[in-house]
Design goal:
The chain is an all-alpha fold and about 300 residues long. It has one domain. Helices cover about 65% and strands about 0% of the residues. The longest helix is centred in the middle third of the chain and has 31 residues. The chain is elongated and about 65 Å long. Belongs to the laat-1 family. It is a multi-pass membrane protein. This is Lysosomal amino acid transporter 1 homolog. InterPro entries: LAAT-1, PQ-loop_rpt.
């Protein structure tokens, strides 16, 4: 799910630090876009954010339409997604990011919580045997996610006090070091670790969903638009990161190394989403393989 270019924030938006940069990029994002490549990176990053922001809505509709979201989506897929976004949110505060980036991270977590609420609702509706261990786990994650989000909402994102970075879906960040300093500053190490864990969660979340689709031999109840928008967002994010020029004094290799967790997270998830896309083609027109799913769909057809 889900990640825009690494946008280095200039402390206080000081225009003298970027005399030849794009004025609108500097004023809106406090970033120095020195040439067309940097501007294109920012634009692609904005579009990728839009893709990630819109990705959940098709699945909301599909869940209400079919009523089998609890069988169609793997609970571990949803939990992995929420875990990655929670780390995103924590990282955005640790890195003192701009309010726009923080509010975007909060939106992602809230969208995940809505998705989990729908999952629990249809799980309770379609099964009368009570809640099992997975659902209890969901409640724990929902509680932690809600508490974390509300506590962070109570804080003032305020003014960025030190250089930070911004990456669309993966909003994790760390301060830029001056040329000639050590390869990683303290903030960068923290951001790198959190970003790595977040990327692993995003990657691992796809595996249970791939298995669920294979086990059901069907993708009924899963919206392909969800994965299509995430694939587009991850593609644009990866391109935006690679398109952006390194900081002055920074080699291309060091630049890629500093962005490696998010590149692996976005492009790695993209490769797994391609597998899910093939499953949509292979299982196209397939019938649900679980009796409860068939009963739910047949019940819908019987309704006037």
């Amino acid at each position: 799910r889900a990640m825009a270019a690494r946008w280095a924030v200039l402390a206080g938006g000081n225009s003298s630090a970027c005399p030849d940069g794009s004025a609108w990029v500097r004023d809106v994002f406090s970033e120095c876009a020195r040439d067309a490549r940097d501007v294109a990176s920012v634009v692609l990053g904005l579009v990728s954010i839009g893709c990630f922001a819109a990705a959940s809505f098709p699945q909301f509709y599909q869940a209400c339409k079919t009523g089998i979201m609890d069988q169609a989506l793997s609970i571990y897929f949803l939990l992995g997604w929420l875990g990655g976004d929670l780390l995103n949110l924590i990282g955005s505060f640790l890195a003192n990011q701009l309010p726009l980036q923080i509010y975007t991270a909060i939106y992602y977590v809230l969208a995940d919580l809505v998705m989990l609420f729908l999952y629990c609702y249809y799980k309770a509706k379609n099964q009368s045997g009570g809640f099992g261990a997975p659902i209890n786990t969901v409640f724990v994650f929902v509680f932690l996610g809600t508490v974390s989000t509300m506590s962070l909402l109570g804080r003032d994102p305020g003014v960025v006090q030190e250089p930070a970075v911004f990456q669309g879906r993966a909003l994790l960040a760390a301060g830029e070091q001056e040329a000639g300093d050590t390869p990683f500053s303290r903030n960068e190490i923290i951001g790198f670790i959190i970003g790595s864990i977040s990327s692993v969660l995003y990657l691992c979340s796809r595996l249970p969903q791939i298995y669920t689709n294979y086990k059901r031999k069907s993708t009924v109840g899963v919206s392909y638009s969800l994965f299509a928008l995430v694939m587009l967002g991850n593609t644009l994010y990866g391109v935006s990161v690679l398109l952006k020029n390194p900081e002055p004094g920074q080699s291309q290799g060091d630049y890629v190394l500093h962005h490696l967790p998010w590149l692996v997270g976005s492009l790695g998830v993209l490769s797994l989403d391609v597998i899910i896309s093939f499953q949509f083609l292979v299982y196209r027109g397939g019938k649900p393989g679980v009796p409860e799913e068939r009963d739910a769909l047949l019940g819908e057809q019987d309704e006037p």
